[in-house]
Amino acid sequence: ASKYRPFAPVGLKDRTWPDTVLGKPPIWCSVDLRDGNQALIEPMDIARKLRMFEALVDIGFKEIEVGFPSASQVEWDFVRKLIEEDRIPQDVTIQVLTQAREELIRRTFESLRGARRAIVHLYNATAPVMRRVVLGLDEDGIVQLASGQARLFKELAAQQPGTEWVFQYSPEMFSGTELPFAKRVVDAVTEVWQPTPQRKCIINLPSTVEHSTPNIFADMIEWMHRNLARRDSIVLSVHPHNDRGTGTAAGEFAVMAGADRLEGCLFGNGERTGNLDLVNVALNLYSQGVDPGLDFSDIDEIRRTVEHCNQIPVHPRHPYVGDLVYTSFSGSHQDAIKKAFAARKEGELWDMPYLPLDPKDLGRSYEAVIRVNSQSGKGGISYLLESEYGLELPRRLQIEFSQVVQGVMDASGKELTAPDLWELFEREYGLA
Ligand code: KIV
Ligand code: ZN
Questions:
Q1: C-alpha–C-alpha distance, residues 353 and 137, integer Å
Q2: Distance of alpha carbon 347 from its chain centroid, rounded?
Q3: Which range has the worst mean pLDDT, 66-70, 266-270, 321-325?
Q4: Which of 218, 219, 224 is nearest to 203 (CA)?
Q5: How many angstroms is it from 206 CA to the middle of ligand 1?
Q6: 108 CA distance to ligand 2 middle (Å)
Q7: Rounded to an integer, what distance in angstroms lies between the CA atom of residue 230 and that of residue 28?
Q8: Where is the Pyruvate carboxyltransferase domain (predicted)?
Q9: End-to-end alpha-carbon separation of the chain, Å?
Q10: Helix-helix angle 331-343:378-389, to 10 degrees
């Protein structure tokens, strides 16, 4: 049983809970090795790609977009390495991306020769600005392009019957596309693929650029969910970006609106402001009592791997993982946390002020929770002396010593660690 309780606000009578919270995890798909990688100043080499792939497998991802094999030699070589060296676990499916161009599609299928199972991901842009300015095609032209390349997918898959093929289609810039037209293109593709409830295809709806508040994106997903042909034969996937800083919310709302699957990157890497942050969504679920099916029990190790592979640091205030997110600077926060830890009984539901989840669950420790700087009060000082040195100060001494500490910090402007406090205490009270 989870130690976290599903969130249900008291007082909102016109809503049915928990229907409007996420009650189960989506199907997860990591695109770290593709969307994440294409957004790096220096894209990953094969060694870094492999390290990221293995970390994603260890976390528990079952669908991993590993690259764009027709785009570069490294991408091609990496896909070949995974297949030829038998590095893909039985329960993991690799996914590769291709643009809707015949020579690229042929090369993509070639790169997957010998794979046990693979998701082949076809995309073309559908938004008016891309039709007009980039592709020079009208609506009929886009429908023909997508359905023609979908047909080629079927032909090439039939030529490699040893692989179990899953087809995926993305109307790129879905978030800027007229809904009836997006439906028309997607329906044309599924008309070609003829998926069944037993053999589904994936339709992936990206907010290639995030244009709206997340509820609007979710409304668009709900419209597609209700109106697409062959809905029971489709895994409805979404691929939010984060241009307005609301990628996480967009993904969560989209799942509540009918999506089955989420694509994103660890810690929100990806083009521009990044993709949906998979860690955020997974741990948001976790902290509300829903097992995300992904293992972040050693989140610092995952962070080190991701920082090494991406060569991008994770922000100290990044939800769940940043250096500072289990640190409380204010005296009133420290005091409340100290009291809640003292009152907490084994096996109780988590109900801690200022700590949305137990840092221990992610391999982080309580030691980092309370630090002492010029913003903090006596609670934090006595907590550190007691937890680190077993020194229980009487209340009068707590007040007296906190004034000494305050004087030192006011003069230096620096934070004091537990050993600093111990040394000061020894000096002040002549124990040294
Ligand atoms: O953001 C996007 O539209 C993409 C597509 C290729 C799916 O990454
Ligand atoms: Zn993307």
A1: 56
A2: 29
A3: 321-325
A4: 224
A5: 6
A6: 19
A7: 22
A8: 26-300
A9: 49
A10: 50
The CA–CA distances, whole Å, from 431 to 267, 344, 423, 425, 426 equal 47, 33, 9, 8, 5
CA distance 277 to 250: 11
- What are 85-113's pLDDT values in tens digits? 999 999 999 999 999 999 999 999 999 99
Measured CA angle at 154 (ends 79, 132), to 5 deg: 85
- pLDDT score recorded for residue 369: 56
Q: Which atom of ligand 1 is nearest to the CA of 97?
A: 6
pLDDT digits (tens, 9 = 90+) for 24-48: 999 999 999 999 999 999 999 999 9
Residue 133: pLDDT over 90: yes
CA distance 210 to 36: 16
Taking alpha carbons only, the member of 4, 1, 58, 5 closest to residue 297 is 58
**Assigned token pair, 76:** 């091609």
Please tell me whether the interface predicted TM-score (ipTM) of this complex is above 0.90.
yes
HEC sequence for 199-253: CCEEEEEEECCCCCCHHHHHHHHHHHHHHCCCHHHEEEEEEEECCCCCHHHHHHH
216 Cα to the center of ligand 2, angstroms: 19
Indicate if the alpha-carbon torsion angle 28, 29, 32, 36 is positive or negative: negative
pLDDT at 68 exceeding the cut of 70: yes
Structure confidence at residue 20 (pLDDT): 67
What gap in Å lies between CA 256 and CA 218, rounded to an integer?
A: 8
SS3 of 169, please?
strand
Residue 14 has pLDDT above 70, yes or no: no
HSE-CB at 107 with a 13 A cutoff on CA atoms is: 17
Cβ pair 217, 177 in contact under 8 A? no
The pTM for the full model equals 0.89
Query: Helices H, strands E: what count in the chain?
Result: 15, 8
Q: How confident is the model at residue 13 (pLDDT cuts 50, 70, 90)?
A: low
Chain segment 152-193, per-residue pLDDT in tens? 999 999 999 999 999 999 999 999 999 999 999 999 999 999
Measured CA to CA, the distance from residue 428 to residue 414 in angstroms comes to: 19
Q: Is the CB of 121 under 6 A from ligand 1?
A: no
